[in-house]
């Protein structure tokens, strides 16, 4: 009887989550193998595996859509935004978590309220503002907005995580005579690797995929990003779906790779505090 | 009207062969439109003294995808490259934005007063810019050979207060019924229905054989209204009625004739003319159904011809014919009427003057005049300019069939180009509901009239 | 004995010593600089947008100050209330789905019977990493009547009678459209909540086990209270973030059929960029902001501060 109960329990716990995971991984796989089909093959059957997988779509996408330029621009934007977000969100998140000063609630409220307006509401005022300041269409145009967009959630994540770190580390550091900076960056930051990995992935992928601002604030073809490049496929009424998918795979794979690299770090962090079964 | 794309990513051998054939054939026939001739002809007609424009510059914004192998993008590339080669002293700051994002970008530029010198525009926005004096009327500038070279009605969509403000580069019928005559014959319909009742009958027969009568992909909302209903409505109302409606001179959506048009259109949906998922698939899917021989016909605008040429299987292409929406006996409209027009067109900012403006005009002539018109035909679409003596044997056979059809129609104003955007949006949304019986014709007419009155 | 007087982790209340005056200035500076940058780049456009909402403006020419007229129009606008209702319903589904399922997964992760934890954790996050437009595009294919994955699976399972016009029926389109929205971000909240769960020290769980608590009881009486604050903020982020939903809906239905799946951001975008009414569009934006703030406020009230 106990054995049956155990098995039922085992299924109850494992099956639903397994199904969920399958549904999460299938679209990525589908996208990938569909991109190896020709348009005609795809038209015949959307689900079937490709009979003669080929990379034509990729070559075409790379050439037609100038992916090399866009890849460079997007990567640069993502890395710079990421770097700044990590530094700023860690500092602000840590300080907000540890120091309960007057106006702390207001700071939270300001960051939170900025997340509540859709980007399309901000585009016209932003464009006018940047135009007046002569900041449109430059290499650095998108950095500040991107950094600002990612700050609220990153700060929140750090704040939340730091809350769970005991004060012993800082007390020890204080005894050693460490100042604020040393405590923050040499003592606490290494402990925060897991949450900083999460921040890294989220920031990187948001900036990588960002479209409206990249489309509107930057008009120079040499500065455009991958999502904008993708529109050169998607807005055609005669969409070649498999070509589009190749482009999508090229746009998505880098993020997935970065994610897989960092997820190990997060796992390590979590395993360290994992409940023993 | 959204700009229609006649673009394909695969160069069809047919198109290539016909272009080559055009070069070699009938040397005695002046009409054999030779692509090489076109390229050399353009510089001659574009500017009298190329040197006179040296040092001029202007900025240009457009949505022509020059990497396409046919369609407006390709035609634009051919014509503009030729002009640029002939006018090396002129600098054009050219910017491309994909069509779907174009309007957003243009509105943002407008709001921050950062419009380029030359750009593509239509509709509401055009009227506002014209009335604010941001753009100039072009009647004087196009006077002469260029202006008279435009086809009849090409300038209508860009006319504000009687003056033309835009230069058209395409003239498209919004509606053509594309049908597979083999499937129709198989279902016992031996000729394309010429009346509404015959159409209803044909629908029954086609359904009985398991085909979808008319493939419809209306998820983007505009297809059913713009390509199907607009022309169907012209079986009941006339252009005069529409102009009266637009100018608030007495005609209303709630007029009996229009409501009847709505009702009869809804009836088509009710008897099962369309696939049941009509509002959740797009116009790519509707063509796919036709190419896969699951549907006997589909209805779209002139831009679909290029797609048929590029993507339809050969047997479907051979069996494809074009027709207009059938006549409705007893209704007040015209059986040959079709909603059509230029839609988008190039306009020039009034701040552009002198040599720069001359350069811009010269360039625009090259991408819109009769010379361009011939290039357009080779690329599978019809430009805004007249082309004399077209040699149809040099064109793709499917396109030739289409040309034969379109020469029989009379183009009328397109509702969603000439009405305020808010009214068009209402028409689109309500048409989706009309098709699934979520709204009655009377209600739809009333809602649309309310929105129109509020403008 | 020891277990019942287990020292609870001190929350971050640090006592300020006098010699830390300099520290305070430094702290303020480190927070102020990014805050100012944020205010300049985000809050300023936000405020300007609010100003637009009090004007009538078509993008050309001067703005006309109209006071509260846009708001009056908004209150009487049926399309607005339809979009607002749809958006709120989707936000509700999102909270229940995204955070709810993420919470359950977080609980499950503490259960020793769960296998392949790393695999699940990694894979469930995949959809978060993909652009919302891509998600909308994929699900449009899944819902397709003829060759979509969903109907294909239902037919294989012998449940063809469950097939519905997923995106065509105004009655169910909002639910259909909510599924991808929920599905995409489960992973995000899973990571957020897992972070909080994993920071609970083992000893507390061990104590409970010694006392005979099973997994369910541990989850509800220990895990849940200890992650309450994080949970609260996750729900706030989820609800107010879903108010902005746009890309998936745009790709799947564009608000249709008719307007049955229209959402506030779509309505705002169409009003501003299709119809060209910048003032009214800004009014709709402000309404999105107000809804978000209201939801945040309500959730804060309901979930308040929990003492351990």
What does this structure look like?
The complex is a heterotrimer of chains A (277), B (455) and C (308). Chain A is mostly helical. Chain A has a single domain (56-272), classed as MetI-like fold, CATH 1.10.3720.10. Chain A has helices at 2-34, 39-44, 56-64, 67-98, 104-114, 119-132, 143-163, 168-175, 180-191, 193-209, 212-217, 226-234, 241-272. The relative contact order of chain A is 0.13. The model of chain A is unreliable at 270-277 (pLDDT under 50). Chain B is of the alpha/beta class. Chain B is 45% helix and 12% strand. Chain B has 20 helices and 14 strands. Chain B has helices spanning 13-24, 35-46, 71-86, 99-111, 123-131, 145-148, 181-186, 196-208, 222-233, 239-246, 256-270, 283-291, 304-311, 314-319, 354-366, 370-378, 397-406, 415-418, 421-435, 441-453, and strands at 57-62, 91-96, 118-121, 159-160, 163-164, 167-168, 172-173, 176-180, 212-215, 295-300, 320-323, 337-341, 345-348, 410-412. Chain B has a 5-stranded mixed β-sheet with strand order 2-1-3-13-6. In chain B, strands 9-10-8-11 form a 4-stranded mixed β-sheet. In chain B, helix 3 (71-86) links the parallel strand 1 and strand 2 (91-96). The radius of gyration of chain B is 22 Å and the shape is globular. The two termini of chain B are 19 Å apart. Chain C is an all-alpha fold. Chain C has 2 domains: 9-52, no CATH class; 71-303, MetI-like fold (Orthogonal Bundle), CATH 1.10.3720.10. Chain C has 14 helices and 2 strands. Chain C has helices at 21-52, 69-75, 78-109, 117-124, 126-129, 132-142, 149-156, 173-198, 202-210, 215-226, 228-242, 247-252, 264-274, 278-303; strands at residues 55-56, 64-65. In chain C, strands 1-2 form a two-stranded antiparallel ribbon. In chain C, strand 1 (55-56) and strand 2 form a beta hairpin. In chain C, helix 3 runs parallel beside helix 8, helix 11 (228-242) packs antiparallel against helix 14 and helix 13 (264-274) packs antiparallel against helix 14 (278-303). Chain C is flat, with a radius of gyration of 24 Å. Chains in contact: A-B, A-C, B-C. At the A-C interface, helix 1, helix 4, helix 5, helix 6 and helix 7 of A face helix 1, helix 3, helix 4, helix 5 and helix 6 of C.
